[in-house]
Amino acid sequence: MTNQELIDLMNDRALGYRFLARTFRTAPDATLVEAILQTAEAAGAEGDPLAAFYAEAADADPEALRRDLAADYNQLFLGMSPHPVAPYESVYTSDEGLLMQDARDEMLATYRQWGLRVPESFDLPEDHVALELELMACLAERTREAAEADEATAELVAAQRSFLDAHLAWVPALCDDITKRARTAFYYGLAGLTRQQLAADAEILAAL
Predict the structure, then answer these.
(1) Could you give the CA distance from residue 169 to residue 182 in angstroms, rounded to a whole number?
(2) Under CATH, to which class is 3-85+131-207 assigned?
(3) Closest CA to 186 of 92, 96, 67, 14
(4) What is the DSSP code string of 144-179?
(5) pTM tops 0.90, yes or no
(6) DSSP state of 86
(7) Phi, psi at 88, each rounded to 5°
(8) Contact 162/114 with Cβ under 8 angstroms?
(9) Which of 16, 89, 126, 132 lies 20 to 30 angstroms, CA to CA, from 108?
(10) Whole-number Å distance between alpha carbons of 202 and 93
């Protein structure tokens, strides 16, 4: 792989992880819905997990779409349904299935390791899936910046492989639960897209 190919790859990975992080972080606002609709206009690739949603959204009223997606986000992740999904690593990896367990402490240490801080406006446990996806985006960007400066990237790539194995291996199980409980094609498709990206990224990082 050439240096430019590595730069392009890391840029694409960062963008992909940032999109996933945004969709998991909070209910969609008008800006996100507009971006999604713009993507829908150019979508249609075979095998795209969001294809069904794009077909539905192509002629949708943006505000009605925002309300529908916000309602689904709230029932999935904010406890506004009988069976919500907990988007926290601790719930999926601790023996008790509880919040604020070892995974949360490990994530705090990881943020400190890379000089990162959770935004003060984010008042949820630090092992939230959105923050973990955002950390991968940050590491991909740092790798891109190192490649652009013609600096060594092996340590950064190894760190991403390690983080994927240690802290994102639980996410497919989260996606399985989302698939069972989502009421909109968007969140159903988002679960598939997330699984797809993580599986592809494992292969990419293993090959670097």
Answers:
(1) 21
(2) mainly alpha
(3) 67
(4) HHHHHTT---HHHHHHHHHHHHHHSTTHHHHHHHHH
(5) yes
(6) -
(7) -125, 135
(8) no
(9) 16
(10) 20
Residue 42 pLDDT level (bands cut at 50, 70, 90): low
Question: Could you tell me the two tokens for 102?
Answer: 């070892």
127-175 confidence digits (pLDDT tens): 999 999 999 999 999 999 999 999 999 999 999 999 999 999 999 999 9
Among candidates 127, 134, 136, which has minimal Cα distance to 174?
127
**Neighbour count for residue 199 (Cβ, 10 Å):** 11
| Geometric angle at alpha carbon 164, from 7 and 72, rounded to 5° | 100
Looking from the CA of 164 toward its CB, the CA atoms found within 13 Å total 24
Length of the chain: 208
Alpha carbons 41 and 39: distance in angstroms, whole number: 5
**CA–CA gap between residue 170 and residue 141 (Å, rounded):** 23
Q: Say if residues 160 and 176 touch (Cβ distance below 8 Å).
A: no
One-letter amino acid at 113 equals Q
